[in-house]
Amino acid sequence: MLAGGNSRRMGQDKAQLPYGNGTFLSHTAAVLQNFEEKLLSVGQRTYTLPGWVSVPDDFPNRGPIGGLYSALRRCRSDALLVLPCDLPYFPRGLVEYLTSFSDAGWRAWVLKSRDGRLQPLCGVYTRQCLPLLEQMLAEENGRMSDLLERAEAHVLEMASTRFPDFVLGNVNTPQEYQKLKTPPVVAICGVKNSGKTTLCEKLAAAYTQRGLQVGFCKHDGHAFTPDVPQTDSFRVRTAGALPAAVTSDGCSMVVTPQAEILHAPRLWNSCDLVLLEGFKNSDYPKIEIVRQGNSGQPVSQAPIAIATDIPGLQAACPVLNLNHLQEIVSFINRFILHLPE
Q1: How far apart are CA 285 and CA 77, in angstroms?
Q2: Of 182, 277, 312, 315, which residue is the least packed, with the fewest Cβ within 10 Å?
Q3: Residue 133 has what DSSP assignment?
Q4: Whole-model pTM above 0.90?
Q5: Cα(226)–Cα(246) distance, integer angstroms
Q6: Which residues form the domain of 304?
Q7: Residue 82 belongs to some domain of the structure
């Protein structure tokens, strides 16, 4: 596990940032707990982690090339799985997938996301890479892309797996870290009459029965009037008051600009999961419904999965059976709620 970076964009040590019930460091360590030999590349830091051997850089300030070289020299095994410490979504199943190629005879193998980007820090490197690393250190060449080329690294396409690309995302900035503190969100999107509300209703019921608190927010593609004209709240809101609210003993209604509603912590912080309906052009994780006789192809931007009743539908992301609710729930459990597999 690589944990010796400078965290320049974050402005503080990423490895020690709180996450879940511990830190990024302890979270990723738990994902990798089943390995017999566990090496922690610490750069020039002084981390200690139970069950892990801390490995300082033999060549300081050389980036991941230096950390990988020092770890491979210490490694007793023939090959070394390499992951950075700040991968909050990386699942244990993808670790098992990477290590399943240990008998393939490759010098190195790495993942490639569906958008074509190589992931050199999510891969496996054998001891055959040591001479290449030594040469690159002598040349003061720290480019991981050059190492992949010299090692003739094999590329494993994420498109050939059941895992969505966002599990490869790490956390580099305070803004990205802040997003992790908000409740888990998934958008159910699709064209008109594709069954978005029906699926949200089923998901809300399924998770409520499991004891989770579920929030819901629908994006209306048309203008709507949130309260009746000439009521007290309507008059004050149209005079310029935002947010505006109406409350009674039974319920409350808050009117606020659409761009702000999902960033109101007090409104959503008690939720275990927030379901969005629509939001197909947003950056939120999206499951798009593609229904037979209604829509033939996905229309959203980069969905993490497609839920469909069309047999054999091909897509650049995992395809789920729209008629099997448990399959969709299991996907959300793994990749949105990050429940144990």
Answers
A1: 38
A2: 312
A3: H
A4: no
A5: 11
A6: 182-224+258-335
A7: yes
